[in-house]
Amino acid sequence: MNAPSMRLFFALRCPTGLAERIAEWRDGQRLSGRPVVAANLHLTLAFLGQQPSTRLGELRGLAAALQATAFELRLDRLVHRRNGLLYLAPSEPPAALLDLAGQLHLALRTAGFTLEERSFLAHLTLMRRCSARPPPTCPTFDWSVGHFALLASETSQRGGLYQQLEQWPLLPIR
């Protein structure tokens, strides 16, 4: 009998207050498309796709072993792709963010997990299927990142819902 599987990813969950401010700004732009609900705003570190639930312990151990430092993240760039994806990104991704994603990707590949081949792109998706032209500038959103999490994506009648399975602290900034 096969173990049940889950759609998993590691991410930085956007803090509630910041997520609400970002969603409020986005909604005020009156763009057409499919907005990401505030509770789901996150920055994906590594997407794992469908994984057997029997591997959760391995993923938890792998994440707990990482030695990455907390950092300040500044989302100051609004990007609209031709495929309708609208997202916020840092003009200069912090070295600690790139280090965290790099450590995580290496540990996952070493453990035999298959990851997408494309390079890591630090971004927070605001909307899908955005057909309208967004404003040329956006406010700056600052975020003190002190932990990362393992999330499961579940589909419901209301759309996707992300359930946090566990989170791990990052080392204090020196």
TrEMBL record:
Chemical reaction(s) catalysed: a 3'-end 2',3'-cyclophospho-ribonucleotide-RNA + H2O = a 3'-end 2'-phospho-ribonucleotide-RNA + H(+)
Pfam families documented for this protein: 2_5_RNA_ligase2 (PF13563)
Entry keyword set: Hydrolase
Annotated EC: 3.1.4.58
Catalytic residue positions: 42, 123
Motif (HXTX 2): 123-126
Transmembrane segments: none
Family, similarity comment: Belongs to the 2H phosphoesterase superfamily. ThpR family.
Stored HAMAP family: RNA_CPDase (MF_01940)
Biological role: Hydrolyzes RNA 2',3'-cyclic phosphodiester to an RNA 2'-phosphomonoester.
PANTHER family, alphabetized: RNA 2',3'-CYCLIC PHOSPHODIESTERASE
Protein name: RNA 2',3'-cyclic phosphodiesterase
